[in-house]
Design brief:
- The chain has 282 residues and is α+β, with helices and mostly antiparallel strands.
- The protein contains 13 helices and five strands.
- The chain has helices spanning 5-16, 37-44, 48-56, 64-73, 78-90, 109-118, 137-143, 156-162, 165-169, 173-185, 193-206, 208-216, 262-272, and strands spanning 123-127, 132-135, 224-231, 235-245, 252-259.
- It has a five-stranded antiparallel beta sheet with strand order 2-1-5-4-3.
- The two termini are 36 Å apart.
Length: 282
């Protein structure tokens, strides 16, 4: 993982904000995407030298007031603001939000009951390593034919990067791979020994294809969106997904999928053995 996650996040967010979004003229011959460092410094009320130090990792302990000013200037969402403060806190030696080194692999009975109630929607529960802990029957009917659930402890991240079938299953593999890296890096990231070990393993197995993503992708995965998946029995599925964080003590995430169009809705009904119309496109 990059040793300067705070600087990486600030730079990527600065480059994603256009001058027009913050009331500045675009000007001519702009070679920098988004805002210049000087423009961000002016908006946040700090010096351009300080912004440079933060982005380069020469200063990793900005005050809460400075972080709030930067967040305002960059038009960060609530989730991005929380992430920014966590990155600054995580720069302190030995800090981690997790109480222990091992990821939680225990699924509470009420969570299993919730998965049962979600049928016939595909849904899956994972921990911070990307390990698949539980899922609905319909998710299995999607995941088993592409090889995702093979092995004693299926791992979504490892599947995406090390199984050749993943590239066939995900037409937008590059974006899916970015999201898996972002999911690994969120929270304690490399400060978690188990996450660090998995990242080291994937770096050795996949080389630059994984390592370069670690260096450029911030640890803030999308909580919702649309994923395309090629299924051997149902052709291409377009699935809208929502990812829900369970309480901190669980340290797990539940992702629920719904068909994004009528063709996908009909295909999911067939896979589930349900009457047409059991799932509606969203």
């Amino acid at each position: 993982m990059s040793e300067n996650e705070l600087g990486l996040f600030l730079r990527l967010r600065r480059e994603a904000v256009t001058p027009a979004e913050v009331g500045l003229p675009a000007g001519a011959r702009r070679r920098t995407p988004g805002l210049r460092r000087a423009e961000l410094a002016t908006l946040a009320g700090v010096s351009v030298e300080y912004v440079t130090r933060l982005e380069q990792g020469r200063d990793r302990h900005p005050s809460a007031q400075v972080l709030s000013s930067l967040a305002d200037a960059l038009r960060l969402t609530t989730g991005e603001r929380v992430h920014l403060h966590r990155l600054a806190k995580g720069a302190e030696p030995g800090f981690t939000c997790q109480g222990g080194p091992r990821p939680n692999r225990v699924v509470r009975p009420t969570v299993r009951a919730l998965l049962d109630r979600l049928e016939p929607a595909p849904a899956v529960l994972v921990n911070r390593l990307g390990e698949v802990l539980a899922h609905t029957d319909v998710f299995a009917r999607i995941a088993e034919p592409i090889g995702l659930l093979e092995g004693g402890r299926p791992n979504l991240t490892r599947f995406v990067f090390t199984d050749p079938r993943a590239r066939e299953a995900y037409p937008d593999w590059e974006r899916v791979a970015d999201e898996q890296v972002a999911a690994l890096k969120q929270g304690p990231g490399q400060a978690d020994p188990q996450v660090a070990a998995l990242m080291d393993e994937l770096t050795l197995l996949c080389g630059a294809e994984f390592a370069e993503r670690v260096a450029r992708v911030p640890g803030l995965p999308r909580a919702n969106g649309i994923v395309r998946l090629v299924h051997p029995e149902a052709a291409e599925l377009r699935l809208s997904y929502e990812t829900l964080d369970l309480p901190a003590d669980d340290d797990q995430q539940l992702t629920v999928y719904l068909p994004a169009d009528d063709a996908s809705a009909a295909a999911l009904d067939r896979l589930a053995g349900r009457r047409p119309g059991a799932l509606h496109a969203v």
